[in-house]
Amino acid sequence: MAQAKQRMAKRVYQARADVLRPQLVQLQLGLKQAPFKVLLIIAGPEGAGRGSLLNTLAEWLDPRGVETFSWHPPTDNERAHPHAWRFWRSLPGIGRIGLYAGSWYTETLRSEARNRRALSAVAAEAERIRDFEQVLVDGGTLIVKVWLHLSQEAQGRRLRTLRSDPATAWRVSDEDWHHHRIYGRMDRTARLIREKTDRPGARWTIIDAEDERARDLAVGRLLLTRFNQQLKRMAKLPRTKAPARVKPLRPAGLRRLNALPLDQDLTAKDYDTLREKWLGRLNRAVRAALTSGRSIVMAFEGWDAAGKGGAIRRLTSAIDPRDYSVIPVAKPTEEEKHAHYLWRFWRDLPRNGRMTVFDRSWYGRVLVERIEGFCREDEWRRAYAEINDFERQLTDHGVILLKYWLHVSHAEQLRRFREREATPHKRHKLNAEDWRNRRQRAAYEVAVGDMLALTDPVNAPWQLVPADNKRYARLEVLRSASRQIEAALEK
């Protein structure tokens, strides 16, 4: 049996820790002014000392700037949401450090301990994690990932030592011993996961965990080094965010938008008759979906004064108010400005058996944020793929996702603006920003066209609604929603 490695002398450790600790405090002070957050992911075999390492870091760091997360089996509420929902909700705020003793890696590793699985299944889960981390990294998050290495012999010694002491025996479980017995299998799985998820911006660092003192110092130094590297990277990013160019990325989307027939007509009498029919059909479809455990997400986009609010009110009149929420998406709060743009939408997703309607949505990233220069060009260009991936995660979970663009002509929009100006109880609906957006109609049409062309997959297609005639638009939303929900339930 291999001998235990010689431990770092306590006085040497203390001297080095005394130098490192104030540097980490300075890191936190600098992080308060930095435009990013830090995630420290700590993983490794049982007995590697994740808990004791966290205790040391908590002692070295100012706890007011730290959030600590430990893994737990998903609760019923977490299972009732898409897989990544709980991880998005766990993310710390800007300027803070999140310490993860258990993370999105834990369930994948523990699943292997329970049942041997095909490497292809493990690789698929690892790739899903890689994509999740890439979205965070692209959004400016610093991810520091540490694998605490412990040989099987060292793990056995550590577990026996813990078990022999009455004060620590409780920390060793039957599951820990099971992991020790299948060390080789677990190690192969861990290697595969690290290989699949080791990418620029989210690299793994393997640190020997046999000597706890050397381990803790190594992790502290790594955190400091990666933080300083991130500061240098962020300093190189362009400071100004110029408004986007007007040239379309995909002309086909703009052609589709311009080809939409807006001269639809529907009399009040016909509307009243058809509305009752489709309200009943929608009610039955929604009840069938929700009672079967499916959730529904609707995203409404469209021109100012296109009638999104009216369409939403007519649609929800068919549904039990206890079953749905309507979320009007306004300008982001200060907290939301400093978070990833998708965070606030992940946060508000419905659980299974519920419905959420977004009055404007995550598409603001490729519409107003693109046109007004609220994000860099590389950010809005990347957003199409990020949004497609976000929506794929929803539909993979079983969410019925419906997306609507309400389209009105330039002339009809002006007529509605004038009507709002002349109607006292409608004046609050019109402001200077609406007029400003109208003057940029050509640029917005290009952005809408690109959105339609680049975010219209089979699992989450766009429904274009001619909205010059309000009655027709409201009825079309009812018909489309009913048919789409029914079709989703038949699959």
Your description of this structure?
- The chain is an alpha/beta fold and 491 residues long.
- The protein folds into two domains: 10-234, P-loop containing nucleotide triphosphate hydrolases (Rossmann fold); 251-490, Rossmann fold (3-Layer(aba) Sandwich), CATH 3.40.50.
- Helix content is 54%, strand content 12%.
- It has 21 helices and ten strands.
- The protein has helices at 10-33, 50-60, 76-79, 85-90, 106-114, 119-138, 152-164, 174-181, 183-197, 212-235, 251-258, 268-291, 308-316, 334-337, 343-347, 368-372, 377-397, 410-422, 432-439, 441-454, 470-490, and strands at 38-43, 66-69, 97-100, 142-149, 204-208, 296-302, 324-328, 355-359, 400-407, 462-466.
- The strands form two sheets. It has a five-stranded parallel beta sheet with strand order 2-3-1-4-5, with helices on both faces. It has a five-stranded parallel beta sheet with strand order 7-8-6-9-10, sandwiched between helices.
- Helix 6 runs parallel beside helix 9 (183-197) and helix 11 packs across helix 20 (441-454).
- It is elongated and about 85 Å long.
- The chain starts with 9 loop residues before the first helix and ends with a helix.
- The mean pLDDT is 93.
What's a concise summary of this model?
The protein is α/β, with parallel strands linked by helices. It folds into two domains: 10-234, P-loop containing nucleotide triphosphate hydrolases (Rossmann fold), CATH 3.40.50; 251-490, Rossmann fold (3-Layer(aba) Sandwich).
